[in-house]
Structures are given as C-alpha cells and as structure tokens.
Design brief:
With 707 residues, the protein is of the alpha+beta class. Helix content is 24%, strand content 33%.
Length: 707
C-alpha cells in the first residue's frame, strides 16, 4: 500500500486569515437558500495536513428566520461567530464533541461560523483497520462521524466547499468539481445529503465524460492501465441501473484509492483499498455494488432505527446480478444461505429490523445474505416486471428521505398491501424456515401416478412462503416446477401425473430464505468456521516449530470464530462423537482414519500427497485444504502444509475462502486451485426409481435482461 510522503511544514494559521477572507468574497454568489428542509453550506476550507489542522469559514443558509440554534462540533476545533452569542452547553462522554447554542442578535435565515484547530478522533478502528477520521501528512478522511463541520438537527440541502491544500494534494468530496489556477478546487452540490465528506491526498486523477456524468479514478499509486479498466466499466453499470431504477442522480462517479483495505460507497464516489481495487474480480463485484449505493443508501437514505435494507438490496442487484448473468445465481444463493445458516443459525441470528451495519461474519450474514434472500423471494412472488416496477416506485417516492425496512418493502409491493403484510414477520422475527421432506410416496392409478409428500417446518412458529417443488418425470429431460404455498408447520402435498415421477427435489435452486439442512450443505470451510462447536486438532508428532505454527493459526482463528476449540491429536479420543473437526498437519494421528472420508470420484488423500483428477500434489510442494461431510452432516477438514511460512499464509488466507471445500496453494502461498464442491447427501431430494436420474432444470431469465 502506497503512503503519500510528508509535505513541507505549513505556515501558522494566523498568517493565512487574509487569504480566507479573499476566498470568501470570491464565492459569495452561491445561493444560501436551503433545499427543502436541509441547510445550505457555503464553505471555505484550508487544510494543513502536516500539522493536522483545518480552518473553515462556513456561511450557512437556514431556510427560515431563526434566533436560537444548537449544533455539535469536534471538540478540537475552536468556533466563533459575529452573528450572535455562542455558549458551549455539553461535551460528549469521550471528550470528542462539543454541543453549542448560539443566540442570534437578530432573527435571520443565515449564519456565519468560523472554526479552526486540530480535530480529535476516536481511537476505535473500523473495517480494514480504518480510523474513524484522520488529518495528517499521510492523508485526510473526514465525515460527519467526527463532526468536522457543525451538525445541526437537519440534513444538508446544498453545499459548496472551496478547498485549499498544499501543492501536490487534491481533495475529493460530494458534488461536481471545478478548479482554479492556484490549484484550489471547489465541490458543489444542490442535492440533499445526509453527510459531508472531505478526502484528500497526493492523488493522480484520470477522468472521462460519460454523457452528463464525469467518471474519474483517483490513485495514490498511479497505474494508468488500472484506471482505464475501471473507467471502461463504470459507465455501463451506471447505464444499467439508470434503466432499471431511474436516472443516475449525481454529476460524477469517482473511484478513490484508500490507504485502508475498504469498500465504502459515498454519494457520487467510492473509497476502495489499494490492494482491494487491484484484485481482478473487484471491478465485477465491488464496483457495481458501490455504484448502486448511489441509489440505495446514498440516494434513498436508510432509517437505521427501523432496519438497514440497503445492503441486502444492493448486494442482490449487484453481486447476485453479476453471478446471475454468468448462469451461477443458484450457486450465489447457496453460498448466501450457507453463510446465514453457519454464522447466524446457532444463537447468532437477528431480526432484519435489528440490522444496522456489518461488523463481523455473523452480522454480515444477516444484513447481506439473509436480507438479499428476502428480496429474491419478493422478486419471485411479484415476477420480474412487477419487481422492477417496485424498485422504481421506491426510488421515485423516497429519494433523499430516510426509509426503514418495512417502508422499503411496502414501496416495492405497492399497491399490494396484503403481500407487504405477509412479509412483515420475515422482518420482525429471528430465524427462518427449517424445511424437511418427511416422505415421498408414489401410487399407481389406472391412468395416472399420484405423488404425495409431507413438508415440515422444523421451527415452532411457521413462516408463510411459496416453495418450489421440482419433479422429474419419465420421458421428460427437464424437471417440472410446482409451486406449493406453505403456511403451516406440516403440509401434505399431492400431485397427479400421466407419467411416472422419477425424482423429486425441494427448492434445489435455493429460492427460499431458510436454514439449510446440514445434509444439503456442500462441504466447505464455512461449515467448520460457523460450527456450533468444532475442534482444531494439533499434531503431536510434528516438529516443535510446526506445532507452534499450528497453535498460532488456531489462536488467530479463535479470535475470528470463538466456537473453535483446540486439542492435541493424542487427546482427540475424548471429543464427543459426531463433532466437527479440522485435522492440522500431515503428521496428525487422526489422518489415517479419516482418509476414506475425503475420497471422491476425482479425489484421493494419500500418504503425504493428494490426487485430484489425474494430478498428484506432493506435500512438500503444495499446501492442501480438503473438507468432507457425511450423511449425518458431520464435517471434517484437513489442512496440510510443508513449512511454518506456509502455515502462516494459510492462517491469513483461509478465512477469505469460506465457501470452498478444496484448495491448493504453491510453496509461495499462491492459489493453485479453489473448488466449491457439491453436496452428495441432500435430504431434500428423493430418487423414486431404482435407477438414479439426474436433475435438469430450465434456464432462468436475468433480472433486467441481458445488457
């Protein structure tokens, strides 16, 4: 990750006050009339990264005459005003924010504040170890969380921000950019916003026009080819979502390189970590996701007290959509249900109305996986055309206003109030259906075959939903789809056909938000990471340095997955039967007894080697990860590595490969193979003839059509 070098020390702020006054006079033409209920800010900002200081003249349009106002501002900033008497009335418990009351000399609809100093930031870190705010010679990140600008009880209606930085620095913010010959720049927006950002660094900017939208890429470590790759894709994504939802709302979209490994979407730009944005799949996953946030989250705002719907809907219309285009939508939904089942089902579940933001794997499984599956069910119930129509209604009715989960659902389903009401328990309750196929009986009548089966919901209180049932008939290549309406704990289904049913499959394309049955889950690392209790079995016969490396790996993973426990292979006989376990190392005493469980048609685990297809991978040349599950749903993993360095690499890498059941890495830690395996024991599938037949399903349309 490139870190911009320190700049020459800036002069004291006192010597620059005349410059600020001149700049203020040059921009007084900006209209200080608030947009709707929002406030208008006309700001002149002077940033000294080397000293960590900022100075702002802020002309604020109030929208209506006021005599008393209260606002919050960073406690490291000193604020003054010639418009009235300022009084500090409170300080936050952490000492980072002050609350002020100002009494104006005469009632007016404008207010001028001057504030300067060295902002104070929380020591807490977010995703990617990113601080909650920073202003230093390495870069600048400021948003409303640090109260670097005055926070009133109303949102922003319009903003113009003129920014002056040291030579070689550039700033990014909301709105449209203009520059001056002195190197300063102005960011202007007349749209409502719920936050105001200031990003600055030694960026190299690449840009092009796409219709009325300016596309740009801002790099700390310049890479013209990378920038052009992003620019080539951005316009197509914007066009796709504009056709589906409504016109793109902003004057620009910018990809901004971040020092921390993040993926954050702000109005009209995104912050992507330096390593993140250079991963080959990010332009096809995170990029459309962050662009779409300009509609969901930054266009229609989230009322967090009433549930964050934005992440699930955005993931569904971007990450899921990309996989659907590739014919892999069912596999994406399977992985989503795996994450939800593995990380949330065992005591970590949460109602969708309670999700605010992602902070670990369990919360991500709620706000992304569980949420997107609900939107998928809603799409299937409405049909594609009506679902897209509902998205447009959500956008047209609620843009630049705050919306909770229930209101978002009602907007999409309008005017079908009954459907919206039917979905409310899915938002309010924890849990999901536990679908079981209790039996499948076939009876021959004179002119027909009758197929009956019982569908059971394992949980006490039933959910109401439509369940796809696919039946393969004799003489037909493609299975037939029946849609069963389920609303009770036990439902008897009965079908009559003029051909003999050969096979029945319940929800094989994972269209229902539900807990996966253990037997239908493919063997994958997530089943072990998310297990209620799984054992990491350390090899006692391994050399001391290897044992220490395995124990370090175990300690690292226990921080991520508290349900993991550690035990030596010599004591593993004391572990309860049927417990999930991960066997560590080629010297593991339990490996001989487990080899048969890892056998597949194309795979065999031998003595210090694994064979996959026709290729042999010796232990000395590859790190290997294998996962298997038996008919009872018990999962066993094996991890083999040839050196302590390889073990250290696996400790870092494998948590990012949770959906895979077979992995190979070379001695340098480079991935050689990553396979998502199929389940071979699903209890939601029944063969009804002596000769097994495969399941073949028809192709499905892509939401919004192919672009």
């Amino acid at each position: 990750m490139h870190t911009p070098p320190s700049i020459v020390a800036a002069k004291p702020f006192a010597s620059r006050l005349p410059v600020l006054l001149i700049l203020c006079l040059s921009i007084i033409a900006f209209p200080l009339c608030a947009s709707g209920a929002g406030l208008a800010h006309d700001m002149t900002v002077l940033v000294a990264p080397d000293s960590g200081e900022i100075e702002v003249d802020d002309h604020i349009g109030l929208g209506e005459p006021r005599t008393h106002l209260e606002f919050v501002l960073n406690a490291g900033l000193t604020v003054t005003s010639q418009d009235g008497a300022l009084q500090r009335i409170d300080t936050s418990a952490d000492g980072l924010r002050n609350t002020y009351r100002i009494t104006l000399q005469t009632a007016g609809d404008t207010l001028q504040l001057h504030y300067h100093g060295k902002p104070r930031f929380s020591a807490r870190r977010g995703l990617g170890d990113m601080p909650q705010g920073t202003l230093s010679a390495h870069g600048v990140y400021l948003d409303g969380a640090s109260a670097w600008y005055p926070l009133f009880d109303r949102d922003l209606g319009a903003v113009r921000m003129h920014v002056t930085l040291p030579e070689g620095w550039q700033a990014v913010s909301i709105g449209e950019r203009s520059t001056r010959s002195d190197g300063s720049m102005t960011w202007t927006s007349t749209l409502p916003h719920d936050d105001l950002y200031l990003i600055a660094g030694r960026f190299t900017r690449h840009a092009r026009r796409h219709g009325t939208v300016e596309l740009s890429v801002w790099l700390l470590d310049d890479d013209p080819a990378l920038a052009q790759h992003y620019l080539d894709l951005m316009g197509g994504y914007i066009d796709h979502y504009s056709r589906m939802i409504g016109d793109y709302p902003y004057a620009k979209f910018a990809v901004v390189e971040n020092r921390w490994e993040t993926g954050f979407g702000m109005p009209s730009f995104t912050l992507l970590g330096a390593r993140v944005m250079r991963l080959p799949f990010i332009p096809y996953t995170s990029l459309p996701h962050e662009i779409l946030h300009n509609w969901w989250g930054n266009g229609v705002w989230v009322d967090y007290a009433k549930g964050n719907w934005s992440e699930g809907l955005t993931a569904y219309l971007s990450d899921h959509w990309m996989q659907e285009r590739a014919g892999k939508g069912d596999q994406y939904r399977l992985k989503a249900l795996q994450r939800y089942s593995n990380f949330a089902a065992e005591g970590g579940d949460q109602a969708l109305l309670g999700f605010v933001s992602r902070h670990n794997d369990a919360s991500q499984s709620i706000g992304y996986s569980k949420s997107l599956m609900l939107f998928h069910m809603l799409r299937n119930t409405l049909g594609d055309a009506a679902f897209v129509d509902g998205l447009r209604q959500l956008w047209q009715r609620h843009r630049f206003t705050r919306v909770g989960f229930a209101a978002a659902i009602r907007a999409i389903t309008a005017p079908d109030d009954a459907l919206a009401q039917r979905l409310m328990p899915w938002l309010e309750r924890t849990g999901a259906p536990q679908i079981r196929l209790q039996g499948a009986a076939l009876v021959r009548h004179d002119d027909a075959w009758e197929l009956t089966m019982d569908i059971d919901q394992g949980q006490q209180a039933p959910f109401e939903f439509d369940l796809p049932v696919w039946i393969t008939l004799d003489g037909e290549t493609i299975a037939r789809r029946e849609l069963a309406h389920i609303s009770a704990r036990n439902t008897r289904l009965s079908y009559r056909f003029d051909r003999r049913p050969l096979r029945v499959d319940i929800d094989p394309e994972y269209d229902v938000l539900r807990y996966l049955d253990p037997t239908e889950q493919p063997p994958a690392l997530n089943r072990l990471f998310g297990s209620k209790k799984a054992w990491l079995v350390v090899p006692g016969a391994a050399p001391a340095e290897m044992r220490a490396a395995w124990r370090d790996l175990a300690a690292t993973w226990q921080q991520l997955y508290p349900a993991l426990a550690v035990i030596d292979d010599s004591a593993a006989h004391t572990v309860e039967a049927g417990a999930d376990r991960i066997l560590l190392g080629w010297d593991n005493a339990l490996l001989d007894g487990a080899r048969a469980g890892f056998a597949r048609d194309d795979q065999a685990l031998g003595d210090r080697e694994v064979s996959i297809g026709q290729v042999r991978y010796p232990a000395a040349e590859s790190s290997v990860v294998l996962v298997s599950s038996d008919a009872q749903g018990v999962t066993t993993g094996f991890i083999g590595a040839a050196s302590t360095q390889a073990i250290q690499a696996l400790a870092r890498k494998l948590p990012h490969y949770g959906s895979y059941g077979r992995l190979l890495f070379d001695p340098n830690g480079n991935k050689q193979l990553a396979d998502a395996l199929d389940s071979t024991h699903s209890q939601l599938s029944r063969q009804l003839s002596e000769t097994p037949v495969p399941l073949r399903l028809p192709a499905r349309p892509v939401l919004g059509g192919e672009d």
